[in-house]
Amino acid sequence: MGSVSAIASRWIETDRDLAEVSERLRAPGEIALDTEGDSLHHYPERLSLVQLAVSSRDVWLVDPLALGDLSPLAPVFAMPSVVTVLHAGDNDLVQLKRRGFGFAALFDTSIAARFLGATALGLDVLLQTYLEVELPPSRQRDDWSRRPLSEAQRRYAAADVLHLFAFKRRLTEELVRMGRLAWVEEECAALAAQPVAERVQDPNAFAGLKGARDLPPRHLGILRELYELREQLARATDRPPFKILGEETLVRLAQAPPGDLTQLAPIPGCTPKVIARWGEAILSAVARALALPETSLPTLERRPRLRLPAVVAHRIEALRQWRKDAAPRFGLEPGLLLPNRLITAVAMAGPREPHALAALDGVRRWRAETFGDEIVAALASS
User: Fold this and answer.
1) Distance of CA 369 to CAs 317, 341, 374, 378, 381, Å?
2) What is the CATH number for 135?
């Protein structure tokens, strides 16, 4: 069984060191990438660590909190001759794309594993399965913004990137054997090209909480005030919002507005500590909402239910049935074979030829070439 105890890493916290790393990484080849944030401990979240490795077993732990500017690394990832290898890299890419990074070539080992039929996608499980490598104990719940990092944290952070090269090779061998490497390459290219939305505070975010749309306007106004209070407290105390008040607690408070501190206690999530710290602020928010004139209460537009023509509804059912039958044949999750987001779009378009299917946004070439005839036949039979 593989061991990670001997992994050594270099700490990067000065502009000079970062420039040296950037030069070192410009050689054609593969770079493993991972990041760590502090979203479980601080608000707003900060990018707290960037892990980089090359196949020579060199590992760098880059400290964004000390550096601030990571732009010297950006040209590296934009080079077509450099393949960035990562695992379940959606969040890593968001963090760096928001800093102006672009990625010319990606290989996400989580995507690759899904196309080989894996359902448990944790890196620890997959490395054990494919390489018989055991990672150090998880540190995902650590506060990665605290300095200095412990030796155990450094080992964990380095291990997360160092084994990706051998893992990629092993996955690629299997993908070639099964004829699915092009599928993964196309999905990874789409991930690399995916734009990132800028952070915009949604004034109606409170309406997305479970149960919000069942509240009458006055109680919805209370929920809005409580949601805004939670946001203010989270920023003021540098604590994640869920550590102030949980979403279910916010909705319960709006459903049964408390008039004094004693009425807070029966509400789930309103612990004695919460009441002592924020009880008066909660009562003030409720009082503000109760004092609002009717014209200032929030109103939510009811989303009209999409009425689909009967022919489209029949096509949707036919596609779902095809997906259910085809998934076991290919050993893939139904949602990977044909995601729900595509089923309605394909049904509405009703393509009669595989090339017309391929032209639909998001379908991908691999899906149309491999399953196009079957999908078109399923549509025709509906």
Assistant:
1) 22, 19, 10, 15, 20
2) 3.30.420.10
Q: Which helix (H) or strand (E) holds 52?
A: strand 47-53
Question: Is 4 a residue whose pLDDT tops 60?
Answer: no
Close Cβ partners of 352 (under 8 Å, ≥ 6 residues apart): 376, 379, 380
For the chain, how many residues are written?
A: 382
At residue 6, the pLDDT reads 56
Indicate which CATH number applies to the domain containing 253: 1.10.150.80
Report the alpha-carbon distance of residue 60 to residue 78 in Å, rounded. Answer: 19
- The structural domain count of the chain equals 3
The token duo for 71 is 């732009």
> CB neighbours of 55 closer than 8 A, spacing ≥ 6?
29, 30, 165
Residue 336 belongs to domain spanning:
310-381
pLDDT, position 367: 97
Pair 179, 227 in one domain: no
Instruction: Evaluate whether 156 touches 137 at the Cβ level (below 8 Å).
Output: yes
Q: Spell out the residues 6+ positions from residue 4 whose beta carbon is closer than 8 angstroms to its own.
A: 133, 134, 135, 136, 155, 158, 159, 162, 163
| Nearest alpha carbon to residue 201 among 41, 44, 37 | 44
Closest by CA position to 226, among listed 173, 179, 285:
285
pLDDT the model gives residue 101:
97
For the whole model, what pTM was predicted? Answer: 0.92
Distance of alpha carbon 322 from alpha carbon 379, whole angstroms: 9
247-290, pLDDT tens digit by residue? 999 999 999 999 999 999 999 999 999 999 999 999 999 999 99
Residues 142 and 29 in one domain: yes
Find, among 229, 207, 214, 210, the residue nearest to 288 by Cα: 229
pLDDT recorded at residue 1: 42
